[in-house]
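To whoever is on call:

I kicked off a structure prediction for a single chain this morning and the downstream step that reads the tokens threw a length-mismatch warning. I double-checked the sequence; it's 238 residues and nothing unusual in it as far as I can see. Pasting both halves so you can look.
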Amino acid sequence: MQIYWTKINKIIEETPEVKTYLLDCPEGVTWEEGAHIHLALEGFNAGDKPNRSLIRHMSISTLPHENSIGITTRIREQCSLFKSILRNLGVGDEVAIFKIHSNVPLKREDKNVYLLSSGVGLATFRPLVLDYFDRADNVNQIHSLNIDSSRDYLFKSIFESAPDKKFTSQFVDNRKDYYEEVKKLAADKDGLFYIVGSDEFLMQNIEVLREQGIQPEQIMLDKRESQRSEFLSYELTM
């Protein structure tokens, strides 16, 4: 496993609680949309075993042609050791990155694509939408549905409905309305449904989709295949 130490080249305050850290891209490092990466802080490998409290699995919110590895994350006032250290880092400070992999690349199967997310989960979907805008081949249309009670919506210039590009973006601020909208979207029995959020959020979405007749192979999760199988083993209780 190769570990790259790289510098923070820019920090963007997306909202009062959400920041994007743009990292220099080491030579030869590339990825595809929907990728995640392991981000580690100084001292994570100082002992005999890696200090897992200084390592996080993070989505990459940029595409390679943007020439930076973007990490978008929510940092609340009360937060973990990892995020409290990250919050205090500045431009020029170093972090380590390793193990890039994509579980949710954009499928181009001539179907409608639905992106279901909660809050900062939009960071995972930003590259998929940009990739679609660059090349819409074999994707009928994309609809993004995000639940965010803060109303400080992320990436407003991207997640804005663009009928000419066959892209629609929808935000709701409570779970009741959100799941009603999911049910409506599930009327498309041939659609592809991508879900990003907490494990609880994933399970609730899967349950609603399965109850509406959506099949496991139509549901994309940012999980390794073994984990994905566990989530999708949900059986309908009739």
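Update from on-call: the warning came from a stale cache, not from the record. Cleared it. Sanity check on the structure: The mean pLDDT is 93.
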